[in-house]
Design brief:
478 residues
Length: 478
Amino acid sequence: MFGLTRAPELDQPGLDWFNVDQPLRLAELRGKLVILDFWTFCCINCVHTQPTLKLLEQRFPNELAVIGIHSPKFDHERDPRMVAQAIARYDITHPVVHDPDLYLWEAYCVRAWPTLVLIAPDGRIIGQLSGEPHPDFLPLGIEDMVERFFARGEMRPRPLAPAPAPAADGGRLRFPGKIKRGPDGLWALADSGHHQVVVLADDGTELHRFGSGQPGRDDGPTPSFNAPEGVALDQQAIYVADTRNHLIRRIDRATGLTTTLAGQGWRGGTLGAPTGGLETALASPWDMEVAGNQLYFANAGSHQLGVVDLDAGMVRLLAGCGAENLSDGMAEDCLLAQPSGLALCPSSNSLYFADSETSALRRLCLESGQVETLVGTGLFNFGLKNGTMAEALLQHPLGVSVAGGRVFVADSYNQAIRIIDPGSGLVSDLNHLTSSLNLSEPAGIATAGDDRLLLSDTNNHRILEVNLRANTVRAWAA
C-alpha cells in the first residue's frame, strides 16, 4: 500500500533555487514520480549518489523528477555562492533548492546524508532511503514504481525542463585539485574540472597536458580521466588519483602511456588484506604520496588509507577500519572520516593526512602503525581558531604538506592556509598574506623548500605562489 502522508511543500520563502527559472511547487510535479535528494557538497557519499541520479534522469526523462535539497553540514556550505560552485563542479543539472536552515530537512524528518525521499504522482510520500543507494538496485526499484503507476493510470509523463547555468570554462585551469613536486623540480597538477593532468615547469609554464578533456577511463597514448583530484610523481611516472573513476592510474613520463594500476571502475567497499590492484575496487581515491615502491593513497569513499606495492602490484589497507568517525590507536582499528590530503614526512617516517569530515589533521607513524590526531575532535566540531593544537579548529581541510618541521594545511572551508608546528604545539595562519585574495575552497598545497608554497585556489581556478621569506603572494598559474 502506498503512503498516506502528503509531502510538505518545497517552495518555502527565502530559499535559493538553482537550475530552474523559478521555484518549483509540488502541484507542478503531479503525475510524475519525484526523488528528493537531501545532500551536502562536502559529503563523499552524496557525491557518489549523483551519477546514479543522472542515469535515472536520462532513463526516465518524462516520468521522473529529481530535485536536490542542499542541506548543509558546515557553516561554509550555507553560502549559496559556494553551493553554485559545487553544482558546477559536480555537473548537477537537475533543480536544486538550498535549505541553509534545514527547514525542509526537518519537515521531511531526514537524519542523514544522503537521504532520498520518494513522492508518488499523487503528491504523497511513499518511501525514504538513507545512505548511499546501490547503483544497480535503485534503478530496478524506480523502474518497478514507474510501471506500477502507469498501470494505475496515475502517470502524466512530461519533461521537467530544468535550466542549468551555463558551464564556466575557468580558462587554463578549472577546479584544480592537488599539486605535487617531483624529484626533478617539475610539478604535476590535477586539473579536475578539465579531467586532465598537467605538468608544469618551476616557473608555472605548462609543459604537458594528459587527458582528452572529456570524462572517460581510456588507457594508452590518448588517455582519459574523470575528475582526478590527486597526483604524485617520481622520476619514472606520474600517479593519478582518478577520483570519479575510482581508479589509480600511471602515466609513464618517458612515453606518455597511461595504464591502470588499481581499481575496477566502480565504487568499492572497504580495503583489507592484500589483493591484486586490478582485482581491488576502490572508493574515490583523493590524494597520493610515493616513496620508493610504495604508493600511499587516501581512499576517501571508504574512510581509509591504502598502499599500492608498485613492484608486486598489490593493494592493501594501511589505516582505518572503514567506519566514519575520529578515534586514534592502531592503524587497522582506528576511525577516519573522508581522508582527502596526504603528505609524507621522511624525517619522522610519518604520513600526515587531512581528515576532512572531522576537520582534523592526523598522523600515521609508518613504523609503529599508530594513528594520532594533532588538531580536531570530531565530526561536528569545526571552526576557525588558532592557539594550541588542543584548542585550535579547522573546517573541512583538504590539503597538507610538510617542510622545515611544520605542517601547512589547505583549510578549505575557512579559505585559509594554516600552519601547525608539532614542535611548539601551536597553530597559526597566513591570513595577513591571503585575506585580500578572496581564496575559495583551496584544495591542494605543496611546499618547495622551507619558504615557498604553491596553493590550489580551487574555485578561483588558479595556483598561487606564496613566498614566506619575502611575504608575497602571486598568481603562478591561472
